[in-house]
# Entry
Amino acid sequence: MNHDEANDLLAALALDAVDAEERSAIERHLAECPRCQSELDAMREVASALGNTVDPLPEGLWSKISDRLYIDGVEAVPVLAPMDGGALGTRRARVPRLGSRRQVWRLAVPVGLAAALVAVLALQLVGANNRVANLQDALRSNDVQSALRTPGHRLIELRSSTHQPLARFVVLPDGRGYLVKSELPKLSTSETYQLWDIVSGRAISIGLMGRAPRHVAFTISGTPGPSSLAVTAEPSGGAIKPTLPIVASGSV
Amino acid sequence: MADLSEASDAQLVTAVGRYSEVALAEVYRRHGGVVFGLARRVLGNAAEAEDVTQEVFLRLWNEPARFDPLRGSLRSFLLAQSHARSVDVIRSQNSRRAREASDAMKTARAEYHLESEVWDLTVAHQVAQALATLPPEERRAIELAYFEGRTYVQVAEILHEPEGTVKSRIRNGMRRMRSVLVESGARDMERS
# Structure
């Protein structure tokens, strides 16, 4: 679908008046066309004005929502890949209390890049079973601001190949890290950013960041600390090794 | 955040991202009525609208990063979610069959008037003004698409008009409304 065809359908899309096939085609165009994205956002504001109809809320509805906040923590969570470097798998996992809430917090665990990486991976895998819970604990008790006030924190600026600053991370001495700021352009719905720890020239997956990263937390374990971080654009399920070119990278 | 009732929507979503159920409850208090109201209007069914409302807020809880304040207000975001999910429900075969079997529903739709259905006091006047600027054929196309969950192709069939004509009517009508709403400040008023 070219620009004019997509642009013609933006108003209909804002009203959800296109079929699934057209929606996908338009979304592919939107990923490459900020102008159309901006117009769609404006059209959606118009649609929301039309739909701004207040109804009295049914009694008990909030209780139903509240009751499901924690028991619905069942999502596809990346599962440890076989040590022989097989494909990234998924499983249905129930995480106690705070379920795997969002994609950006899911970890794309280190997978076998090559047999030579087994030793490094083993270190990564040691704490992997608890990593989701650890991350969630960290997120509950810390935020970016407190991380920035922590003595010994390191700021890592990730830049594009043209030296444009695209993302800034803070990493604490214990390996916890947070996204401080992101200028990464939004990806299409079928893609995600993936964060990599570059150690001795090898890329180890730290986690998936989602298509428009805003809140990202991670833990780097098994290594003394990153020598550099890198971000790549990958299919939504993540990749076992980075797809080049690297979107942004930066040294500690 | 000492007093959530005074927090901005963006601050609330940030708090939701830190597992603040209280913040989510405040979002629900502010916007739950419109989320439910739109779903009920599109679906014509309170029980299904409750399900949609639950999904919308659970999704915000699970994926708060999907809301980007630079792209619009939280209310618009939640309404878009409510509408899209409601349309999904409507377009499922069973729901459509049940819907079409309901004579009462058809009667209600036939008597539906956009102006009388827009309740929110902050934008009602501006929306009414914007709607008044639309030629009837543009209003009808938008109404069928948005409130009945039809695709523009289906709208064309209902109105016995070429698809291209309906597409243009929707586009022109939405652009016209947008101009009026921007002039009247309704969009800005809606942002938090």
Observations:
- The CA atoms of residues 83 and 97 of chain B lie 19 Å apart.
- Chain B touches chain A through 71 residues (CB under 8 Å).
- The domain at 112-192 of chain B is CATH 1.10.10.10 (Arc Repressor Mutant, subunit A).
